[in-house]
Q: What sequence folds into this?
């Protein structure tokens, strides 16, 4: 194309080529690999040879990037709330109502820095709170662990720690069954693609929709694998409240247990195995601990209730005969359970019963000899052949901050990146400093007092999550300022009218929002600082490599692709990169030298990252800048594969390149991280911590949900909502902002009033009973609030359960913010803020009861 | 002369919408004159994805059908246009000339597939160009198939005879053949979208066990045509490919010598429920 230049970049949904002309992006396309790039892997299995397509895949949110970059909702200049005067009336009660005026960068930066200095002098730096949304675009330099932590650690702040929202039940439950704390309890997945192709006969996708959630960040890299497995005759069974999109493509059988009853279904399966002698007794005897106690519970010795298929049918609404058939199929074929979409995760883990589901998954896999050929926990998304010996960090390894307490920098990257420099850390942002769980930011502001256990992602040990915290930490100040980075929490956290109300109070004297788009929480800030996308600045990254608590995540991809993220265009309007904004602020705070390390640009940092990795072993900096990407060669042909858990099943020392367990957690590097070194049906860590905790007892049990079909509110609110991670947007990214995703029929519905409504899916019978027709507007509500949505009437979900993805990007109250229905589609206004269990400080968003009625006020 | 063809396997599509979005990425805010000019940001569906849900819980299924301009050999839009505003290239691609089509709204209405869209601002009819501007510059395929991650969409540049061979070998079909416009877009497994199924479950021992490998025979009452299948280990069966509204069918289930039959009227795909033997 005349005058077009092809550059590279990358996203949460894959690396891309970007064609640019006259300072504008022409197109964004998935990468085709060149002949000169490293060869693709080959796997021989069952008489066939499998090799992936020579290209990288992308997700729809990546395909739609151009419409997000050039969005009418971009914030193009700094803004101030019209009735906010830092030296006079602040009018905090008008946040979200009074509107904005354009100001200069100078005024914006002066105002923010003066407030920071005032607060530091009057209260101390810990009175400044900051946190980002989970997925801050893509790139190791510009990411929240990197640029944000570098600046905030230097300036001083209280971090609102993220809860492990995708891991919850594995983190608070699974970890106590088998350790893997460095994976937050998720199963390892090394080389399981080869094992699966060669040996597996049945895959049970349980709370797993890989075609929608793409493992994490890996687009449709694993899609061909599932087609191959089908071609080989591998049977695929799906267990999910919703007939999900992977099921639509691949399911031989689908089960929809009533929400929150997955553990009951699992108990029913275990009952069949025990009574029909369908489990691996030798493995259970030699590789596990406490089975007899658990067996006693399953058979009813402990509580007088045998967990028969008939009992399970009553809880799950799945016919007992089908539970038996499932148990027999699982127990008589080489079966791998894809528990969650990544290998771990899954919506079932984000609920009141999430701990027990995750623990049951591990227990069931153990009963079937997990680690023996074809028998494992594998979600088909990770475990492709790759060279884990070639080092390139994921974003969670800390970037230009290398904060060893709050990222995975300490594993390796900090020593490479700052061999001759200084990583950034802060004593406030350490276990002995001050913290706030982001699920309790409103209570911290409004009530000024909190107690909880576990700081953020507790992966350093099994016991880390037991650590008690309080806010304010002893001697530390209460929050005076919120420096919010992005704007998603109303769409992504729980019972989120709390966040709206928090903004409308003097108890939060100053709120800044640094955001790309005007949406969500940005509309509640006093000062708005316009940031740009990663297509408008330099960065460097690898396809699907987040690392941290998912070591070697790139094994999801068919090729390890590391890309230069070129500055494709100048930042739109007056927007700036996050790094430039923080550099400007640091000038005013006297931190510029320290923050920029003597004046480094983002490209300088990219170069420093390049040289701190193994990239120079394969490509020169000059060639990398010119070509824009590098494909990491695979291990030499013939290198033996080391399938996850095979060493454990065979009683050998661990032979996978996994990050843990740490030496002190084992005896001579043998066994798992648990005290017994075994898979624990009866958990030794929970036995020590609180053996009497009924909600999370040492032996995994089915505990009915505190917001489900047994709970008191069920008569008033008889519909159970499942709100999985969204399909087309990546959390809030790509939703609204007039991006093309909004035109996707299964994402939003355009109504006569010109508004595009978020979708709630309900069964034909439930719709009929309420006089609701396909695409009618409905009010979904409970005591926590109301949301206006478009109804999708479907048979893909049974009566009594409704489905609406979480992560609406915006919040649009039809009346007073915080007290009226939202028509943007934040289902999380309705989800409970209650923690999963009294000692598990995770979110239970899939334990939510609502009622639905037709909404007649379309014209208003 | 090799001509363009697009082969879409609806059994491999799960509605990811990469094709729909990539098409917009190529055509919004880009001037590819003389092939095409910019589309509006929102509103056009040059690659439209239709969807259908068949049958009832828990044996229902879903199907998606990506529907671009069919680049018909007998294109009604060419006949409806004036001054050669719509023309067919030698490679079979049907193009709407963005200058000549000015004001010709009748082009939009002429398409039985509803694949042509009106651009209000520019007052022109617009549609899929098979990315002719890219093919002309040496691209191997259009943006839609390039972004397809499931292998549902294949661009095939073939001599007509070669294509005819593939049509026969792979049982490719046209969507709405009754329009008789001879499309260059072909579908595989189209029955998943256009036909319907009869599904159900068979149980034994008072419903306590699934009837495994039970024989299920379906007989069309009017013609006495029969089809048969066997239940899986969950006692489920599904027979597919029936016409909608095709009358009464007798369904008979047999397991260890015990049989039971019922008659249903088939309007749309149907889950007949559980047959207890």
A:
């Amino acid at each position: 194309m005349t005058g077009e230049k092809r550059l590279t970049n990358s996203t949460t949904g894959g690396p891309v080529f970007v064609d640019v002309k006259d300072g504008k992006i022409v197109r964004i396309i998935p990468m085709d690999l060149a002949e000169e790039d490293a060869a693709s892997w080959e796997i021989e299995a069952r008489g066939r040879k499998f090799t992936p397509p020579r290209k990288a895949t992308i997700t729809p949110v990546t395909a739609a990037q151009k419409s997000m970059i050039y969005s009418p909702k971009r914030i193009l200049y700094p803004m101030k709330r019209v009735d906010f005067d830092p030296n006079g009336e602040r009018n905090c009660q008008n946040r979200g109502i009074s509107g904005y005026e354009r100001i200069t960068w100078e005024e914006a930066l002066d105002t923010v820095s003066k407030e920071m200095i005032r607060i530091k002098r009057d209260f101390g730096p810990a009175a400044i709170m900051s946190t980002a949304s989970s997925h801050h675009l893509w790139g190791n330099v510009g990411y929240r662990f990197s640029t944000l932590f570098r600046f905030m650690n230097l300036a001083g702040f209280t971090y609102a720690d993220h809860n492990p929202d995708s891991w919850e039940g594995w983190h608070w439950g699974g970890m106590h069954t088998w350790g893997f704390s460095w994976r937050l309890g998720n199963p390892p997945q090394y080389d399981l693609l080869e094992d699966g192709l060669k040996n597996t006969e049945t895959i049970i996708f349980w709370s797993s929709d890989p075609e929608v959630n793409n493992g994490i960040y890996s687009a449709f890299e694993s899609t061909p694998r599932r087609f191959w497995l089908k071609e080989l005759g591998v049977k695929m069974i799906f267990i999910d409240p919703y007939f999900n999109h992977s099921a639509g493509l691949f399911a031989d059988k689908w089960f929809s247990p009533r929400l929150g009853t997955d553990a009951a279904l699992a108990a029913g399966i275990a009952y069949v195995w025990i009574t029909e002698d369908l489990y691996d007794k030798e493995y259970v005897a030699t590789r596990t601990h406490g089975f007899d106690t658990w067996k006693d519970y399953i058979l009813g010795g402990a509580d007088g209730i045998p967990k028969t298929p008939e009992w399970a049918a009553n809880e799950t609404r799945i016919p007992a005969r089908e539970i038996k058939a499932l148990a027999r199929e699982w127990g008589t074929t080489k079966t791998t359970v894809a528990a969650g979409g990544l290998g771990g995760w899954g919506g079932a883990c984000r609920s009141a019963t999430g701990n027990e589901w995750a623990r049951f998954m591990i227990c069931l896999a153990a009963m079937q000899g997990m680690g023996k050929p074809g028998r494992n926990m594998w979600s088909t998304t990770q475990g492709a052949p790759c060279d884990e010996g070639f080092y390139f960090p994921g974003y969670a390894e800390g970037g230009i901050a290398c904060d060893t307490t709050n990222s995975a920098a300490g594993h390796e990257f900090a020593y490479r990146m700052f061999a001759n420099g200084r990583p950034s850390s802060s004593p406030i942002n350490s276990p002995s400093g001050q913290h706030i769980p982001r699920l309790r930011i409103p209570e911290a502001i409004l009530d000024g007092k909190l107690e909880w256990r576990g700081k953020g992602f507790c992966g350093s040990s099994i016991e880390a999550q037991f650590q008690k915290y309080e806010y304010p930490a002893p001697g530390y100040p209460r929050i005076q300022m919120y420096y919010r980075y992005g704007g998603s929490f109303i769409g992504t956290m729980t019972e989120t009218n709390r966040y709206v109300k928090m903004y409308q109070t003097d108890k939060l004297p100053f709120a800044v929002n640094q955001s790309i788009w005007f949406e969500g929480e940005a509309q509640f800030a006093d000062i708005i600082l316009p940031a740009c996308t990663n297509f408008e600045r330099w960065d460097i990254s690898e396809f699907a490599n987040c690392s941290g608590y998912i070591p070697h995540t790139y094994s999801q991809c068919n090729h390890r692709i590391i890309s230069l993220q070129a500055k494709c265009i100048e930042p739109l309007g007056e927007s700036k990169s996050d790094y430039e904004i923080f550099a400007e602020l640091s000038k005013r705070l006297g931190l510029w030298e320290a923050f920029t390390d003597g004046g480094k640009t983002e490209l300088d940092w990219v170069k420093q990252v390049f040289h701190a990795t193994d990239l120079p072993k394969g490509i020169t900096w000059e060639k990398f800048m010119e070509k824009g990407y590098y494909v990491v060669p695979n291990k030499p042909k013939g290198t033996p594969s080391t399938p996850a858990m095979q060493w454990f099943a065979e009683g050998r020392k661990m032979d996978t390149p996994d990050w843990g367990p740490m030496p002190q957690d084992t005896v001579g590097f043998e066994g798992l991280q648990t005290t017994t070194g075994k898979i624990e049906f009866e958990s030794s860590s929970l036995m020590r911590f609180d053996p009497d905790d009924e909600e999370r007892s040492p032996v995994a049990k089915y505990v009915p949900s505190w917001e489900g079909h047994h709970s008191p509110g069920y008569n008033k609110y008889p519909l159970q909502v499942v709100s999985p991670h969204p399909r087309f947007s990546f959390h809030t990214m790509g939703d609204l902002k007039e991006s093309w995703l909004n035109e996707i029929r299964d994402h939003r519905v355009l109504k006569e009033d010109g508004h595009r409504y978020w979708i709630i899916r309900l069964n034909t019978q439930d719709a009929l009973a309420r006089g609701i027709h396909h695409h009618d507007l409905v009010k979904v509500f409970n005591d926590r609030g109301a949301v206006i949505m478009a109804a999708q009437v479907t048979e893909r979900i049974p009566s009594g359960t409704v489905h609406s993805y979480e992560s609406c990007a915006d919040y649009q109250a039809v009346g007073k913010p915080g007290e009226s229905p939202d028509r943007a589609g934040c289902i999380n206004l309705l989800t409970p803020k209650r923690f999963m269990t009294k000692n598990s400080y995770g979110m239970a968003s899939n334990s939510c009861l609502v009622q639905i009625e037709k909404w007649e006020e379309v014209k208003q | 002369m090799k001509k363009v063809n697009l082969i879409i396997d609806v059994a491999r599509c799960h509605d990811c919408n990469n094709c729909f979005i990539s098409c917009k990425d190529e055509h919004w805010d880009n001037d590819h004159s003389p092939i095409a000019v910019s589309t509006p940001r929102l509103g056009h569906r040059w690659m439209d994805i239709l969807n259908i849900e068949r049958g009832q819980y828990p044996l229902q299924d879903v199907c998606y059908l990506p529907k671009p301009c069919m680049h018909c050999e007998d294109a009604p839009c060419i006949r409806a246009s004036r001054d050669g505003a719509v023309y067919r290239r030698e490679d079979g691609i049907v193009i709407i000339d963005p200058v000549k089509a000015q004001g010709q709204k009748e082009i939009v209405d002429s398409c039985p597939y509803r694949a042509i869209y009106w651009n209000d601002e520019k007052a022109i009819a617009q549609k899929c160009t098979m990315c002719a501007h890219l093919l002309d510059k040496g691209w191997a395929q259009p943006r839609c198939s390039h972004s397809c991650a499931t292998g549902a969409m294949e661009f095939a540049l073939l001599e007509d005879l070669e294509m005819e061979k593939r049509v026969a070998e792979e049982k490719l079909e046209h969507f709405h053949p009754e329009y008789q416009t001879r499309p260059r877009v072909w579908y595989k497994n189209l029955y998943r979208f256009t036909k319907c199924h009869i599904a159900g479950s068979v149980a034994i021992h008072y419903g306590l066990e699934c009837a495994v490998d039970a024989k299920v025979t379906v007989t069309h009452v009017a013609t006495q045509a029969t089809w048969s299948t066997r239940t899986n280990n969950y006692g489920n069966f599904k027979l597919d490919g029936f016409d909608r509204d095709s009358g009464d069918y007798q369904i008979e289930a047999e397991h260890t010598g015990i049989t039971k039959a019922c008659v249903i009227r088939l309007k749309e795909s149907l889950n007949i429920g559980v047959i207890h033997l």
